[in-house]
Design a protein that fits this description.
4 strands, alpha+beta, Glutaredoxin, 4-stranded mixed beta sheet, elongated
Length: 98
């Protein structure tokens, strides 16, 4: 997964729910050095008494927000969606630097 263009990552999930696998893989895919590059990473653990829904929300450098429900989306689907936008930003960055 291309994480270079992320500025903010919010992951909200129940560790015992169906969404836990996708949410944990999403957090694990972000390299540790990404925090030093200015990416704000937030994780929120839900329990049965909290009525909030599970969520993964990514904000890119161009201020685009992408969010999805990790209980309905697999990690591969989410990764492909996020990589598609990251590739667009990489192409734009390449064109601007020439």
């Amino acid at each position: 997964m291309i994480t270079k263009y992320f500025t903010k990552v919010l992951v909200r999930f129940n560790p015992f729910g169906a969404e836990a696998k996708t949410a944990r893989l999403m957090l694990a895919a972000i390299p540790p050095h990404q925090r030093t590059l200015g990416t704000k990473i937030q994780s929120e653990i839900l329990n049965n008494s909290i009525t909030k829904k599970p969520l993964v929300k990514i904000t890119f450098k161009d201020k685009t927000d992408m969010e999805f429900d990790p209980s309905n989306t697999s990690f591969e689907e989410a990764s492909n969606l996020l990589d598609r936008h990251s590739r667009k930003l990489r192409i734009k960055e390449t064109i601007e630097n020439q």
